[in-house]
Design a protein that fits this description.
The protein has 317 residues and is mainly alpha-helical. The protein has 10 helices and 6 strands, in the order ααααββββαααααββα. The strands form 3 sheets. It has a two-stranded antiparallel sheet with strand order 1-4. Strands 2-3 form a two-stranded antiparallel ribbon. Residues 14-22 and 134-155 have low confidence and may be disordered.
Length: 317
């Protein structure tokens, strides 16, 4: 009778303190994130964990998608606008937008406006694969919505409405092409002889062998030829002209190479060579002749006698 039952607890166990509060606080020995959340009532955006914890998107792409989803409809989200807001540069923002587009969080379809211009629309998707008009209300999955037919009842055919005649679309006016600007003026030679202009034309036609971008049309070549002729008449060699026209060209190519050449022909035109007086004509040197009287050599245009023999003949006469 005096033996005690050791399996029975001596007193009632108290409730665990952590279960008295809906949010259990971890003990000091537990590591990891601790959430101190407050309920939002205004100015908040619902973000799915499929975006916040996406395993393939970069942190920049996730943050950029959260920012875009928080913006009102009509806000600008182009690369320049986003680059002005955030410290990341345009290249990183463009790469993040391509990530979101590849995973379905962003769509950028191209549309034609009534004026005929092509614009890009930006559509933000908070749940890729489901469009706003395709969402199904939770209530229709559990019970039919009032007024909607069930699966057992056929849907009533829509009442025929008045037939509308198709309105002809207004013709889109053709876009006016901006006229091309004329080439800059080039220097003109003092004397544009046919031989000089032909040499200038041949020089310009051969530039494409040095750089494929310098393939000039016949019209551009005729415009630039007087400028090259002005260089040639200033005692500049054809090799020096080619070097001046083809050195230090843009590595990414030229939109209009003839305009670049026209600018160089004008901006780098060398000065006229210094004036040189024409040299006096050299004295004529006659060939050596043997004198018919004294057999001495003397210079004369024809064979005959020297000056001394001719003087003796005059005195004897």
């Amino acid at each position: 009778m005096d033996t005690k039952n050791l399996s029975v607890p001596s007193h009632a166990q108290a409730r665990i303190a952590g279960k008295n509060h809906p949010r259990q606080r971890p003990s000091s020995g537990v590591s990891g994130i601790v959430h101190d959340n407050a309920r939002h009532t205004t100015r908040f955006t619902v973000i799915g964990n499929h975006l916040a914890q996406h395993p393939e998107l970069s942190l920049l792409a996730i943050g950029l998608s959260v920012h875009i989803q928080s913006l009102p409809t009509g806000a600008r989200v182009d690369i320049k606008t986003l680059a002005r807001k955030f410290p990341e540069g345009p290249d990183r923002i463009a790469a993040a937008l391509r990530e979101l587009e590849a995973h379905g969080y962003l769509r950028r379809p191209r549309e034609r406006t009534p004026s005929g211009h092509i614009v890009t629309r930006t559509v933000s998707c908070n749940q890729p694969g489901r469009h706003a008009e395709g969402h199904t209300d939770r209530r229709t999955e559990d019970e039919p919505e009032p007024g909607r037919p069930t699966h057992d009842e056929p849907a009533p055919a829509p009442a025929p409405g008045p037939t509308r005649l198709a309105q002809p679309k207004a013709p889109v006016p053709p876009r006016k092409r901006t006229p091309r600007k004329p080439l800059p003026a080039v220097p003109q030679p003092a004397y544009a002889g046919p031989g000089l202009l032909q040499a200038a034309t041949d020089l310009l036609a051969g530039l494409r062998r040095l750089d494929p971008d310098l393939l000039l049309s016949a019209c551009d070549t005729a415009h630039l030829a007087p400028g090259v002729a002005a260089w040639l008449e200033r005692d500049v060699s054809p090799t020096a002209v080619r070097q001046a026209l083809t050195s230090d060209l843009p590595p990414e190519g030229m939109r209009r190479p003839a305009a670049v050449l026209a600018h160089r022909l004008t901006a780098q035109l060398p000065p006229l060579p210094p004036f040189r007086a024409p040299a006096s004509p050299s004295a004529v040197r006659h060939p050596l002749q043997n004198c018919g009287g004294c057999e001495r050599a003397f210079r004369a245009p024809e064979p005959g006698r020297c000056r001394d023999c001719r003087s003796d003949l005059l005195e004897a006469a």
